[in-house]
Design brief:
- By secondary structure, the chain is mainly alpha-helical.
- The chain has one domain.
- A hairpin with a 2-residue loop joins strand 3 and strand 4.
């Protein structure tokens, strides 16, 4: 967990542009999603004959039902995006289970995702109410509400970005601090064993793994689901 307090490290530079851990991990997640989709959708049949196709259909049906129940059948066009968003946010958080830095632990990532959602909300409002109706909505129910409505509009992507980032980054920091504290406790009690360049602290074995189940696995899954749900609810609300 090096550099937790300093943010993502710069891995390399391309023509003067600094490429951080977040960008590299983002490329890795995209590659994993691509390979997973290619693997699950290879040689599809009308009647499933392989477990791969059954799993693929279960995932598609899950996303379709999620979008249908939260956005309505007339907004099923958003299903591919919601599926991609859910999978990216999920894998982007869970890569910490193998010791890599979570993509969603970088505020730049969660803010970018939230701004895409904000653009979709704005597009939906203009599509269903027109430009005039969209602008008039800021003065609803009375003109005095204009400043509050503007703040509310900006607060939506900001709150979504901070919610996902805060939960993932917070869990990562807590786990890192506890890991260091357990190492210090092991050293104080003389429970650090070394053999050449290899060594381990007794209290660092097992306990961090249990906490990782919550902070990395459970919290990562829940936050990815919540972010996707907020996206669907806010975009669907734009048509009302």
């Amino acid at each position: 967990m090096d550099g937790v307090g300093q943010g993502p490290r710069v891995v390399f530079e391309i023509f003067g542009w600094k490429v951080t851990e977040t960008v590299v991990m983002g490329w890795l997640v995209i590659l994993i999603v691509f390979v997973l989709c290619r693997f699950l959708t290879r040689n599809l049949k009308k009647v499933p004959e392989s477990k791969r196709q059954v799993v693929a259909e279960m995932m598609v049906n899950f996303v379709n039902n999620l979008v249908k129940s939260n956005m309505g059948e007339n907004m099923m066009v958003y299903a591919p995006y919601i599926g991609a968003l859910l999978l990216y946010a999920l894998l982007g958080s869970l890569i910490s289970l193998v010791g890599l830095r979570s993509v969603t632990a970088d505020f730049n990532t969660t803010l970018s995702m939230a701004l895409i959602t904000f653009a979709m909300i704005t597009y939906t409002k203009i599509k269903y109410h027109g430009v005039g109706g969209y602008l008039k909505g800021f003065c609803s129910p009375i003109g005095f509400m204009l400043p509050l409505n503007l703040i509310s509009e900006v607060a939506t992507p900001a709150s979504m970005a901070f919610r996902l980032f805060g939960n993932i980054a917070g869990g990562m920091v807590i786990t890192s601090l506890l890991y260091g504290a357990l190492g210090a406790l092991s050293s104080a009690l003389g429970l650090v064993f070394e053999a050449g360049s290899w060594g381990f602290s007794v209290f660092q074995v097992g306990i961090p793994a249990v906490l990782s189940v919550y902070f990395d696995l459970f919290s990562g899954c829940i936050q990815a689901y919540i972010f996707s749900m907020l996206t669907m609810v806010n975009v669907a609300a734009g048509k009302d």
